[in-house]
Design brief:
- The protein is an alpha/beta fold.
- It folds into 3 domains: 5-84, Arc Repressor Mutant, subunit A, CATH 1.10.10.10; 91-165 and 271-296, 3-Layer(aba) Sandwich (D-Maltodextrin-Binding Protein, domain 2); 168-267, Periplasmic binding protein-like II (D-Maltodextrin-Binding Protein, domain 2), CATH 3.40.190.
- Helix content is 42%, strand content 24%.
- The protein has helices at 5-17, 20-27, 31-45, 61-88, 101-105, 108-118, 135-139, 198-201, 204-212, 226-234, 249-253, 283-296; strands at residues 50-53, 56-59, 93-99, 122-128, 145-149, 158-166, 168-173, 183-185, 194-197, 220-223, 239-243, 257-263, 269-276.
- The strands form 3 sheets. Strands 8-12-7-11-9-10 form a 6-stranded mixed β-sheet.
- Strand 1 and strand 2 (56-59) form a beta hairpin.
- Helix 1 crosses helix 2.
- The longest helix has 28 residues, at 61-88.
- The radius of gyration is 21 Å and the shape is globular.
Length: 299
Amino acid sequence: MSVTLRQLRYFENVARCGSLTEAARRLNISQSALSLAIKDLEQFFDARLFDRHNTGVEMTSIGQLVFAEARKINRNVKHLQSLVHQCQNPLEGEVCIGLSTVGLAFFIPKLLSDFRALYPNITLSLINVEWPDIPTPLRAGKMDFALSAVSQDHDDDIETRPLRVYPRRLWVHGNHPLSMQEAIPITALSAERLFLYEHDITLSEFSAYLDDFDLTPEVYEPMKSTEAMRNLVEADIGVTILSEFSFYTTQMAEKNVYCRRLLPTPPPFIIGSVTNRAAPLSEAASVLHDFLIDRAASV
């Protein structure tokens, strides 16, 4: 028995979705066929790759190792396919993508530069737009797709595909009493000076989480800048809830700032692609979409 590229592609999709049902839907195959492919892969490695539970699947430690290598293999195969296809049929076209501030500020510009080197005949244009305003220009045909922080609370004609998931944590200064605890009840924050990122509050899952524990605007202070929030915590002026996308554990430890788990666990910060189900992507847009999804996941 040997491993096939198809099995690795199926495995990566299940790992990204955290659900056999959702992965089967996206791959356009039956769930039984997908389950069999994963079972064959586990038999090949003689190891369990996923833990199954009522809400989906979660990679085991071995599954995480396999995922890291499978992702590289799948990316290299896609890259090779793109190179051959581009040599045989140079792709042309115009693509407009929406990018949120988090995408523009971090890894997307470098990926767009790499894409232009591979596909010089595709013209790219960008729109800076934030969730929840993205569906409107998508429906109007003003952009092909978007990469942004996303919410799962959207109309059925809009599809979001998780790209990277970042846990949210409480960030405190090393001198703060809360830094002595590994896990902190969310209710304890009502007595603290709490800074929250304005854009996070617009994401319905996080907003609902705050409402459940009476963390209202009368309790927290909304901020427009994550950099300002980091500086305030570093100065021990208050605490904040931010994802590991905005805060980098190793860097902040050098500044005597530490992350602590919150109980209950807040919903994660999700960066994903946003598309309009009613408007299939052009070939050029589809190639760019898949390129960004694949490369961004490994940044």
